[in-house]
């Protein structure tokens, strides 16, 4: 038995985009592992969810940094980054 789930009522349409915009959207879709349609729907959506204010993000980053600061004192970050680059451990 095949079950189909419909989240929205979609309408298929054709639109014309400048080649530059199309390539930019296609690259964003690839980079974010989304479909081109999903990226376009996200761009034109009117019900965007508000993101966190920048000051809340900075506070969260500082909290994490303070939490792990003691365990990172003996780490040579430059040496670690060079090793990752040279050994291809990305």
What is the compact description of this entry?
The chain has helices at residues 19-31, 36-44, 54-68, 77-87. It is an all-alpha fold and 90 residues long. The protein has two domains: 1-49; 54-87, no CATH class.
Number of domains: 2
Number of helices: 4
Task: Give the percentage of residues in beta strands.
Answer: under 5%
The first-to-last residue Cα distance is 42 Å
> What portion of residues is helical?
40-55%
Rg (C-alpha, Å): 22 Å
Overall pLDDT score: 83
Task: Write a structural description.
There is one protein chain. This protein is mostly helical and 90 residues long. The protein has 2 domains: 1-49; 54-87, no CATH class. It contains 4 helices and no strands. It has helices at 19-31, 36-44, 54-68, 77-87. α1 (19-31) crosses α2 (36-44). The protein starts with 18 loop residues before the first helix and ends with a helix. The relative contact order is 0.05. The model is unreliable at 1-5 (pLDDT under 50).
């Amino acid at each position: 038995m095949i079950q189909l789930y419909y989240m929205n009522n979609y309408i298929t349409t054709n639109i014309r985009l400048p080649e530059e915009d199309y390539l930019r959207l296609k690259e964003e879709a690839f980079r974010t592992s989304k479909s081109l349609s999903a990226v376009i729907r996200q761009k034109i959506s009117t019900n965007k969810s508000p993101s966190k204010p920048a000051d809340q993000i900075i506070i969260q980053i500082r909290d994490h940094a303070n939490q792990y600061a003691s365990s990172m004192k003996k780490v040579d970050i430059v040496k670690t980054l060079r090793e990752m680059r040279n050994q291809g451990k990305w």
